[in-house]
């Protein structure tokens, strides 16, 4: 400034004293301790917010699916039971101090469903037993060959058996049912065959190891089956039923159907390991559920394409829209009715005596729509030809008039294709009903009509 005074760019607080003087209050800078306190306070507050958000999400997961919370309690119960081998001297001495293997067995084999738990228990026990016997035999044979040849025999046996077991995991049948057992076999065989114990000590160790694995697996099976059992077979049955219900209710439901293939295959694999329970008898046709699921997904793919056509901008002549509208709505309604009846069959595990009537109505609607596509009103054809001639007279290659009717024709064709895929679902569900001996229900069948267009 011209007066040589400095320009204050910060805010000032002024206090007017009674004697008329003015005192300017200068803000003191925060000290390092105060700044550290504020930083730590913000850090703690942010941690508390994130922790509360996480706890809220975890609570919602438990509320939405209480079975997950029950599963956690079952795992805790099983581990508490197996830990008694540490706290009770009699039990601890009975397993030779190898109680840790029982704890490890519970941790690695206890799964959400009974089928998955049985799958891992049987695989672990079988893999441990076979590997222990072979490892003991190889170890004994290597000792008989002398100290010089012993390492060679052990190395060759480890290479051959580990390579063979690993290759077996690429075979589809073995991978689906015994993949975990092959992995346990490789681990146990290597531990037993290359151990430095004498034969008598090795036999005792293998015996205790197999005993602890059996005890841990037994505790898992008993806990899983007695405490709020969760059957993979029931989960698979409910999944297929829900997919049918969602497929019949609206077009948006097809997305969950398309993503359920992995879950269906996993549940079907685990369901084969479960004993008869409830309405699911011995040798229940679990493979047929996969065929039903594949038919449902095939129908969902068609609906996905249909959904894209419906959401597109259709500028076909109004006369043509009115000509096809009623038939399309009728066909979609009857198709939805058939799927709802199939869902009711699956849910109640009963055969429907009225499903053939619904299929007949759907087929009649297909014939009517096909006939409507063949007999397009002449005035609509004239309008399209005139529009095309005008484009040609203007010396352009514009085919817009013809392209405008393609989405509508595609929708009609997709509805016809959808009806044919619904019939495939009917075929697969009926085969399931025959194989599983569904009871006959004369009152089954839904009379409600839901349009999917």
TrEMBL record:
The chain crosses the membrane at residues 68-87, 99-119, 126-143, 180-199, 211-232. Its main location: membrane. InterPro entries: ALMT. It holds the Pfam family ALMT. GO terms for biological process: malate transport; monoatomic ion transmembrane transport. It is found in: Membrane. One of its GO terms (cellular component) is membrane. Keywords: Ion channel, Ion transport, Membrane, Transmembrane, Transmembrane helix, Transport. The keyword Transmembrane applies. It is a multi-pass membrane protein. Belongs to the aromatic acid exporter (TC 2.A.85) family. This is Aluminum-activated malate transporter. The lineage of its organism: Eukaryota, Viridiplantae, Streptophyta, Embryophyta, Tracheophyta.
């Amino acid at each position: 400034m011209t007066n040589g005074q400095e320009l204050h760019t910060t805010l000032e607080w002024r206090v007017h004293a009674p004697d008329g003087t003015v005192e300017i209050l200068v803000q003191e800078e925060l000290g390092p301790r105060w700044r550290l306190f504020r930083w730590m306070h913000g850090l703690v507050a942010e941690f508390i917010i994130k922790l509360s958000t996480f706890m809220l999400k975890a609570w919602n997961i438990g509320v939405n699916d209480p079975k997950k919370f029950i599963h956690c309690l079952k795992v805790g119960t099983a581990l508490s039971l197996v830990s008694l081998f540490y706290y009770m001297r009699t039990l601890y001495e009975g397993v030779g101090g190898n109680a840790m293997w029982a704890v490890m067995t519970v941790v690695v084999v206890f799964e959400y469903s009974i089928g998955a738990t049985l799958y891992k228990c049987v695989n672990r026990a079988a893999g441990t037993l076979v590997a222990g016997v072979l490892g003991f035999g190889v170890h004994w044979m290597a000792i008989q060959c002398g100290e010089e040849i012993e390492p060679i025999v052990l190395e060759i046996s480890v290479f051959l058996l580990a390579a063979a077991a690993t290759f077996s995991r690429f075979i589809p049948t073995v991978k689906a049912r015994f993949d975990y057992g092959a992995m346990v076999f490789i681990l146990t065989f290597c531990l037993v065959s290359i151990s430095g114990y004498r034969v008598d000590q090795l036999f005792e160790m293998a015996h205790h190891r197999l005993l602890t694995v059996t005890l841990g697996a037994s505790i898992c099976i008993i806990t899983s089956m007695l405490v709020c059992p969760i059957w993979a077979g029931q989960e698979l049955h409910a999944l297929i039923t829900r997919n049918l219900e969602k497929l019949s209710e609206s077009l948006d439901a097809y997305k969950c159907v398309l993503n359920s293939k992995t879950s269906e295959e996993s549940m079907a694999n685990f369901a084969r390991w479960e004993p008869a329970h409830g309405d699911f008898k011995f040798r229940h046709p679990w493979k047929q559920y996969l065929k039903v699921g594949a038919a449902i997904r095939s129908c969902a793919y068609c609906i996905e394409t249909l959904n894209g056509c419906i959401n597109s901008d259709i500028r076909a002549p109004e006369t043509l829209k009115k000509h096809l509208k009623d038939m399309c709505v009728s066909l979609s309604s009857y198709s939805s009715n058939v799927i709802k009846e199939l869902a009711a069959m699956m849910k109640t595990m009963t055969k429907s005596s009225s499903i053939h009537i619904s299929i007949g109505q759907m087929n009649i609607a297909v014939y009517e729509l096909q006939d409507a596509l063949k007999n397009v009103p002449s005035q609509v054809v004239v309008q399209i030809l005139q529009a095309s001639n005008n484009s040609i007279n203007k010396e352009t290659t514009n085919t817009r008039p013809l392209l405008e009717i393609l989405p509508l024709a595609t929708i009609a064709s997709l509805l016809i294709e959808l009806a044919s895929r619904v019939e495939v679902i009917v075929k697969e569900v009926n085969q399931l009903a025959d194989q599983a001996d569904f009871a006959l229900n004369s009152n089954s069948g839904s009379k409600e009509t839901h349009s999917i267009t």
